[in-house]
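My main concern about presentation is that the manuscript never shows what a single data entry looks like. In essence, backbone conformation is discretised, so a fold becomes a row of integers matching the chain in length. An entry of this sort, consisting of the sequence and the corresponding backbone structure tokens, reads as follows:
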Amino acid sequence: MLLFPKIIKPFGVLALLHFVKCDDSGSMGEGKSKVLTQNSFHVEVPKNNYFVMFYAPWCGHCKNLHPIWEELADMLNDSEDSRVTIGQVDCTVEKQLCADQDITGYPTLKFFKKGSDTDGNKFRGTRDLPTLTNFINEQISESPKEAGEKPSINEGLVELTEDTFEKYVSIGSHFVKFYAPWCGHCQSLAPVWQELAEHFKTVEDVSIAKVDCTQHRSICQTFDIKSYPTLLWIESGKKLDKFQGSRSLETLTVYVTKMKGEQNKKTEASEPDSANEIVKQEPVIALTSENFNDVTKSGIVFVKFFAPWCGHCKRLAPTWEELGTKLLDNKHGIVIGKVDCTQKLSEDLCNQEGVDGFPSLYVYKNGVRISEYNGSRDLEELYQFIIKHKAESHDEL
């Protein structure tokens, strides 16, 4: 749960001021935001993307910003693999550090890219949650490498990371090896896996990939990887099969050929009347500005608005997929969707829907937003919540 309630209206900031804790000197108390000092700043900041507030405890604007800053920190600082850390520096204590950073007014907000503690990009916008999160998105997306748009490919073998995995496997067929570098069986399989990748590198719509589970734990947790190596066949982002045979090049080649052939048969046999029917076959529908209105215009649709860098979003992701799977073949007719607010096709949509924190979970009925979920992100709680909305919809009829 977020540390503070979401700020939906401009006067929400004033309403939250009583949450700010002060000591006898009037300074802001420590919370989720990481406190940085002269010594820790140069050690910690280069380790990750850092968004830092330089402030003075007596500054009224700093006190007004504090609850919003803590909400950002609550979204990002709880996760070990978060791509952004929220920090704060008290300039009445760390005078030399603030002088080195050329801080001349309070609060000053600077974004430091991973690997640097000197070249911070100064935030100059409105200090509200939507504007601050948009700024974070812009800072991350400026770097193609960090944005995860192009995974590393070596002679056909695709190396996937937490930044590249979801987008890459969302389309097409993929045979993925989940491994650990210290695993003896993984080391034996490595040259065979490379040969397999080279064999299929020119085949359209199929890829051979690998994920290092010691470096990218969240992916392996999502797919419930319990031993190494684990070889999964993934289509359109979903696990379709687990390979259980011998790990010889010949056996693996036959397997890929067989799985690819079965997928082609399914594609030929399935000719739904509309593109909308194809989308609804997935447990969770990926929504953008282009298809949002079409999908939400009728029935009950439960939508997760998220950002890939958000720690709470990463923890919710597997549960959200389970919810979609649980409702996929039921008689309730409920659709589960998700919107990545960092994608260009979704930025306007997220602003239009008033998304001011991640994740935001909204319920739509016949094209109109009717509710927001703020409860526990437990599977059963989410399920009962949306089933209740469907029951209420029937009662109205």
